[in-house]
Amino acid sequence: MEYIFRSAEEIATALRAGEVTSVELTDEAIARIERDDKVINAICVPDFDHARHGARRADQARARGEDGPLLGIPVTVKESYNMAGLPTTWGMPHYANYVPAEDAVAVARLKAAGAVVLGKTNVPLGLQDLQSFNEIYGTTNNPWDHDRTPGGSSGGSAAALASGFGALSIGSDIGGSLRTPAHFCGVYAHKPTLGLAANRGMVPPPAPALPVDLDLAVVGPMARTARDLTLLLDVMAGPDPLTLGVAHDVTLPPARHERLSGFRVLVLDEHPLIPTGSAVRAGVNRVADALVAGGARVERHSRLLPDLIEAATLYMQLLVSGTVARFPVEAHEQLRASVAGLSPDDQSLDAARLRGMVFSHLDWIEANNRRELHRHGWRQLFAEFDAVVCPITPTPAFPHDHHPNLLERRIDIDGVEYPYFDQLVWAGLATMPGLPATAVPAGRSPEGLPVGVQLIGPMFEDRTPLRLAELLEQRIGGFQVPE
């Protein structure tokens, strides 16, 4: 029996056919974690006793004739989700002993669908990095190269999937935190349309788990196949039962097309604010070639594309304005002094981030109004195209960099250094307007590292990029076991 790297869909079929039990699957996954996770360090909060108990209950339910979309399937959960009885720290040492009493909505939905939760996966401090390390749980390593990061902030989940530690995982995304780890580890992830999946309980400690409509941030699925993303999204999707869920259900429209030949795709591999590394550019071109070979209509330019510089600037300002909202008054005063020293001609992303840190409410409203113009621009673009293919970050996974000042870090792109956070411009392309985006494997770099791209789709038409991901998986392949 070897189910470690099988898809959730295949595992569900085997369970229904009686070829394997959930107890056997769970024991196999736990044995794999105990053998390999000493090096990877993806599972920061194991919960094996409860997992085995859950597996036994799943097998008993199946014996009674019951079923569920994830019944008996071993999964993992990002550490930042509340799980009753397990610590939720967000990597912050001050909250190392914080244990919530209630599951997050997404976790509750996983369990209701029958999933067996093996444990929680590692994150960066406060979820605010493209890497996954903190003082409580240490550093998570990339399964493809242990000297490199698996990404962040859902890096533990991506590393767990690539290592065979469960068939599915759930993460979150505000700065590419689902897509970047998927890209770095060679797996799949889907950033849903903003608001599609309830995020209550994915909250920093010790804040109460309230049904708040977060700006930019989403929760979403991670998997080793595109079809598994759809399976898990269907479990997660839906409004919070305390708010819109009182009156509304979710029914996503079907994908616009079922075959590649029906798709109209805009392919981007250049950004005006940061270059695209050669390995990532090759991945984008590989996907473009596959689309053309499959009969899709592929364009490289469109006058309908919203301005990429303004989009990146808006994204950075909206992102940081929320991040610093709870800073002490003294910190805000220091930031205002720094902004006052900026030249009016400084239009760099560093300057945009600094200005965003001292946004007034009026400033935020103005930025949000400009965002609405961008959203309208995307609606017009998606009247002519079905999806946009573009990078997730400019490079494959980079070496661990634990410099304490993130603003002083640099990212190496083909031998030239750029500000560390400038690489977020591609993630922000979908995040700022709230669009769905699916991260898919697109080959490997000359060094053998995974390379992924994202497929951005129309708002609330999540099944369109997900279907395109399935079709590309059939044509160019998908997840590969790390060598």
Report on the structure:
A hairpin with a 2-residue loop joins strand 12 and strand 13 (416-419). The longest helix is centred in the C-terminal third of the chain and has 24 residues, at 361-384. The strands form three sheets. This protein has an eleven-stranded mixed beta sheet with strand order 1-3-2-6-8-7-14-15-11-9-10, sandwiched between helices. Strands 4-5 form a two-stranded antiparallel sheet. A two-stranded antiparallel sheet has the order 12-13. The model has no long low-confidence stretch (mean pLDDT 97). The radius of gyration is 21 Å and the shape is globular. The protein has 14 helices and 15 strands. Among the domains are: 8-260, Amidase signature (AS) enzymes (Alpha-Beta Complex), CATH 3.90.1300.10; 308-370, no CATH class. With 483 residues, the chain is α/β, with parallel strands linked by helices. 36% of the residues lie in helices and 14% in strands.
